[in-house]
Amino acid sequence: MTILLEGMKLIGAGAATIALAGAAIGIGNVFNSLIQSVARNPSLAKQLFGYAILGFALTEAIALFALMMAFLILFVF
């Protein structure tokens, strides 16, 4: 019975880490948009960089929550 439980924990933690791939795609989209926007209007580079850092932080927060859930599944339950 305990082997089955361990296997289920590993599968659950692996499923929780799928969100990390989505966060990586999101971060790529944020900086892709920054590069395109600065290429179109270089005079707004400083303002756009601030928005990009905000988008990066929010997207990275989702990744950290997903990683925290994976670790909780592995080591707490």
Automatic annotation (TrEMBL):
Please name the CDD domains in this protein's record. Answer: ATP-synt_Fo_c_ATP5G3
What membrane topology is annotated for this entry? Multi-pass membrane protein
InterPro entries membership: ATP_synth_F0_csu, ATP_synth_F0_csu_DDCD_BS, ATP_synth_F0_csu_sf, ATPase_proteolipid_c-like_dom, F/V-ATP_Csub_sf
Which PANTHER family does the entry mention? ATP SYNTHASE LIPID-BINDING PROTEIN, MITOCHONDRIAL, ATPASE PROTEIN 9
Provide the protein name.
ATP synthase subunit 9, mitochondrial
* Recorded family membership: Belongs to the ATPase C chain family.
**What exactly does this protein do?**
This protein is one of the chains of the nonenzymatic membrane component (F0) of mitochondrial ATPase.
Q: Which coarse location class describes where this protein primarily resides?
A: mitochondrion
